[in-house]
Amino acid sequence: MTERQRWTADRIPDQTERVFVVTGANSGLGLATTRALARRGGHVILAVRDEDKGRRAAARITAEQPDARLDVRRIDLADLDSVRAFAERLHADHGRVDVLVNNAGVMAPPRTLSAQGHEVQFAANHLGHFALTGLLLDLLAAGRDPRVVTVSSLNHRQGRLNFDDLAGERRYSPMGFYNQSKLANAVFGRELHRRLTEAGSPVRSLLAHPGYTATNLQFDGPVALWSVLFGRIGGPLLAQSPDRGALPQLYAATAPDVTGGDFVGPDGLGELRGGPTRVRLSAAAEDAETGRRLWEVSQDLTGVRFVFPTPV
After folding, report:
1. Sheet with strand 276-278: strands edge to edge
2. Which residues are catalytic?
3. Average pLDDT over residues 178-200
4. Are 140 and 148 in contact (CB under 8 A)?
5. Model pTM?
6. For the chain, what is the total number of helices (H) and then of strands (E)?
7. Which domains does the chain have, with CATH numbers?
């Protein structure tokens, strides 16, 4: 695309009466996504770990857009009990969800275990979103043009799924396990697409990545040399803003011409920045056997079994 042709948030179609769930909506890409959807009339449920931060984020948006329809709800994606509680509350007062944006993420902390004993990046970035998607699938099937958008990363191409040591008991690298979790996102989104297609479900599974975007994600863990060089020094010079970085996931969530299974990322050099375009997944993410194995492992670790509703 040329700069003139590039898709921007101004081209999001009217989203009035559509219901979105955005995880990690209080900052960074999630906040930018929520703001853009609200601006086009969407009813956005901010699924956040810290409700105070979520309410402050919602207040900033409503200060700019007094008619914004926002709802702040707590979810800790690293805690499967919290994921189930969130889904139960949503079922109690919503008959449908039109789009689920699996956006929240944890990046490169010291080795930490979740409430259920899983490595926290794999738990929050993948298992929590796997469980949430499965628990909301019936609400999504009732939606209008329903979609699941799972946010991966360029780093998925450096990832490796170590099925024999997913919790990092034998060896742990903060960035290595971040890359693993981002590969898991990509494998999940692709495998979900296969299964939805086979079931004839109206729900579409799409993937997106933000390129290199200046968010606070890289500062969630301890300060390391790569964080200083690429986050605090390189970020302001090289990275896009969250508003720009959110464009691929906004495109996947709203553009009328997307197809199930699409992976959307920036169109610039190295997919680091630019307008949204279709990009390629790694061979590992496309591998059907890897998808099947991750799916089975994820079901076992979460206890969530997907039921694929078909059109009536």
Report:
1. 69-74, 43-48, 19-23, 99-102, 147-151, 204-208, 263-266, 276-278
2. 178
3. 98
4. yes
5. 0.93
6. 12, 8
7. 9-302 (3.40.50.720)
